[in-house]
C-alpha cells in the first residue's frame, strides 16, 4: 500500500498525538496536519495489517471548522501544528483525547471528565524558546522552483523530522517581550559581520544556538551557544547583545564543542547582568538559572498547581510526598497548607534549586532528595520519614516505572494526585493503581495552545479508606 494515493478520504475525528482518523476500505488511516471534516487525497506513508499512516497531498474540501493559521511559518515550522483549528475546538479535542485514553487504556470506572481549563493567552505564552543557527536554511517549494539564489544561513526552529534543516523565523507567536527582537537582531548582526552559522554535518561554525527565557514581569535571560572557541567572535557577539539590549537581565554564553546541543554538562559563562531570573507565583519567588527546569507556560502552570493543591485537599496536618519534584515548584507551592512536604527528583542540580527556592521563600517544612525514584522511594525511606497522607506525582511522558506504582500500592496513601503531560501513560498507571484506588476527579488543563499537547490531573482515593 505504501505510496498509494487514497482519494476523497473523509477525515472523521482527532486521534492521539494530533493525528486525525479516516477509514479506507474498512481500515483505519491516520493522517497528520488535517482537521475533522476535511476531505483529502492522501498518500500512504506506512501500511500495516490493521492501520495505515498517510500524508495529505491535496485538500478537496475544507472542514467548516477550519480557521486561517495566523503565522507565516505555519506548515514548515513544527511549533504550532493546530493553528488551523479554532481555540474552542482545540480545547474540546484535547479533552476528548483524555476521555479516549482513559476509556481505552485505563478501563476503570470514571467520574465525569471536566471541561479543560483553557488558557487566557493563546499566543505569546511560553517563557522559553530554543533557536538553532544553521547554514542550511529550509527553502520553500516556491523558493526552490524560482531558481533564484537565497541566503542559506538561518536562525530558527527545526523542520519536523529534519535534524539538518532550519526554518528561518521572522516572527514567533510563542514568546513575548524581547524574544523576536533579540533573535532577529542577532541574525542580522551575524550576517552583516559574516560570522559563521553552524554546520550540523561538519560540526563547524561559530554561532550554534540561542535560548531565550523570560518571566511574567519581563525579565529576560539570553544564552548563546558557540560551536567554536573563538574569543574574538564570542566577544563581538556578546558585546553586541549587551549594547543593543540593555533590558536583558541575564546574558550568558557557553562554548559547546560536543556533538549535541544539550549543555547540562557544560560551563555557563556570565557575560552581563545576573546569572538567573526570578519568576513569581502567589508571592513565592522561584529562581531560574540557565540549567533549571521550569514549566514553560508560567500562567497556566499556576492554574495546574492550583488544581493539584485543591485535589490534595490539604488541612495543614498532612505529610505530602511530591514525586518527580523537578525544582520543587509544586512542593513549595503547597507547603503552607501541609505539615511537611518531601520532594524526590533525580536531577541533583534541580534539587539544589528546590532547596534554595525553599530557603529564599522562608519555607521550612520541605525536604528534598535526589535520586532515581524507584531506588529512593523504598520502605526504609518511608520508615525514616512519615508515611504520606497525600502523594503528588508528576512523572515525565513515559509515566511511572512499574516498581514505583507498586510501591505506591503498598504505601496506600489515602490520596494520590497524579499530574501528567501524557494521558496515555497516565491511564496505564491508573489501571494498575485501580487495584486499591478509585478515580474521583479528572481535570485536563491546557498548557500549550495551538498544539495537541494536553496536561491532565487525576485525583485517586484509597478504596474503603473511610471504613478503616
Ligand atoms: C514533568 S517534570 C515534573 C516537574 C515538576 N513537578 C514541575 O512542575 O516543575 C518530571 C520530572 O521527573 C524527573 N525524573 C524523570 N525520571 C525520573 C526518575 N526515574 N526518578 C526521579 N525523577 C525523575 C525529571 O528530571 C523531571 O524533573
From TrEMBL:
Residues annotated as catalytic: 421, 421 (nucleophile)
Q: Where is the TRAM domain?
A: 1-58
Q: Give binding positions for S-adenosyl-L-methionine.
A: 295, 324, 345, 394
| Keyword annotations from UniProtKB, A to Z | Methyltransferase, S-adenosyl-L-methionine, Transferase
Biological process GO terms, please?
rRNA base methylation
**Pfam annotation, one family:** tRNA_U5-meth_tr
Source taxon at top rank:
Bacteria
Q: Which InterPro entries match?
A: MeTrfase_TrmA_AS, MeTrfase_TrmA_CS, NA-bd_OB-fold, SAM-dependent_MTases_sf, TRAM_dom, U5_MeTrfase_fam
Give GO MF terms, alphabetically. Answer: rRNA (uridine-C5-)-methyltransferase activity
Q: Which PROSITE patterns match?
A: SAM_MT_RNA_M5U, TRAM, TRMA_1, TRMA_2
Family designation? Belongs to the class I-like SAM-binding methyltransferase superfamily. RNA M5U methyltransferase family.
Alphabetical list of NCBIfam families matching this protein: rumA (TIGR00479)
The record's annotation in PANTHER family points to: RNA M5U METHYLTRANSFERASE, TRNA (URACIL(54)-C(5))-METHYLTRANSFERASE
Its recorded name reads 23S rRNA m(5)U-1939 methyltransferase
Q: Which organism is it from?
A: Cyclobacterium xiamenense
Amino acid at each position: 500500500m505504501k505510496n498509494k494515493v487514497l482519494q476523497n478520504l473523509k477525515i472523521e475525528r482527532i486521534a492521539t498525538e494530533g493525528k486525525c482518523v479516516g477509514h479506507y476500505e474498512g481500515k483505519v488511516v491516520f493522517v497528520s496536519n488535517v482537521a475533522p471534516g476535511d476531505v483529502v487525497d492522501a498518500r500512504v506513508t506506512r501500511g500495516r495489517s490493521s492501520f495505515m499512516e498517510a500524508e495529505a497531498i491535496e485538500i478537496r474540501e475544507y472542514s467548516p471548522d477550519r480557521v486561517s493559521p495566523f503565522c507565516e511559518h505555519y506548515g514548515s515550522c513544527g511549533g504550532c501544528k493546530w493553528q488551523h483549528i479554532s481555540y474552542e475546538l482545540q480545547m474540546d479535542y484535547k479533552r476528548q483525547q483524555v476521555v479516549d485514553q482513559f476509556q481505552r487504556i485505563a478501563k476503570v470506572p470514571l467520574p465525569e471528565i471536566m471541561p479543560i481549563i483553557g488558557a487566557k493567552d493563546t499566543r505569546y505564552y511560553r517563557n522559553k524558546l530554543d533557536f538553532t543557527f544553521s547554514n542550511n536554511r529550509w527553502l520553500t517549494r516556491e523558493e526552490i522552483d524560482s531558481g533564484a539564489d537565497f541566503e542559506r544561513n538561518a536562525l530558527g526552529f527545526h523542520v519536523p523530522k529534519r535534524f539538518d534543516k532550519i526554518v528561518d523565523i521572522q516572527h514567533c507567536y510563542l514568546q513575548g517581550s524581547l524574544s523576536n527582537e533579540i533573535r532577529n537582531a542577532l541574525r542580522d548582526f551575524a550576517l552583516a559581520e559574516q560570522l559563521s552559522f553552524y554546520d550540523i554535518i561538519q560540526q563547524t561554525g561559530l554561532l550554534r544556538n540561542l535560548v531565550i527565557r523570560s518571566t511574567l514581569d519581563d525579565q529576560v535571560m539570553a544564552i548563546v551557544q558557540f560551536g567554536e572557541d573563538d574569543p574574538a567572535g564570542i566577544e563581538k557577539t556578546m558585546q553586541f547583545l549587551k549594547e543593543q539590549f540593555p533590558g536583558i537581565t541575564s546574558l550568558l554564553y557557553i562554548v559547546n564543542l560536543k556533538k549535541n546541543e544539550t549543555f547540562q554538562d557544560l560551563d555557563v559563562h556570565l557575560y552581563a547582568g545576573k546569572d538567573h531570573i526570578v519568576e513569581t507565583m502567589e508571592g513565592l519567588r522561584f529562581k531560574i538559572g540557565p540549567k533549571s527546569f521550569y514549566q514553560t507556560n508560567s500562567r497556566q502552570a499556576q492554574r495546574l498547581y492550583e488544581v493539584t493543591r485543591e485535589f490534595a485537599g490539604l488541612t495543614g496536618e498532612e505529610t505530602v510526598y511530591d514525586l518527580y519534584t523537578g525544582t520543587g515548584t509544586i512542593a513549595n507551592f503547597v507547603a503552607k497548607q501541609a505539615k511537611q512536604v518531601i520532594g524526590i527528583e533525580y536531577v541533583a542540580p534541580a534539587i539544589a534549586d528546590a532547596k534554595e527556592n525553599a530557603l529564599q521563600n522562608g519555607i521550612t517544612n520541605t525536604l528534598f532528595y535526589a535520586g532515581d525514584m524507584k531506588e529512593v522511594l523504598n520502605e526504609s525511606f518511608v520508615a525514616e520519614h512519615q508515611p504520606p497522607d497525600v502523594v503528588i506525582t508528576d512523572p515525565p511522558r513515559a509515566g511511572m516505572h512499574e516498581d514505583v506504582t507498586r510501591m505506591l500500592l503498598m504505601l496506600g496513601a489515602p490520596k494520590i494526585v497524579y499530574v501528567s503531560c501524557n494521558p496515555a501513560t497516565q491511564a496505564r498507571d491508573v489501571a494498575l493503581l485501580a487495584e486499591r484506588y478509585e478515580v474521583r476527579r479528572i481535570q485536563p488543563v491546557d498548557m500549550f495552545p495551538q498544539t495537541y499537547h494536553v496536561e491532565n490531573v487525576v485525583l485517586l482515593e484509597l478504596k474503603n479508606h473511610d471504613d478503616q
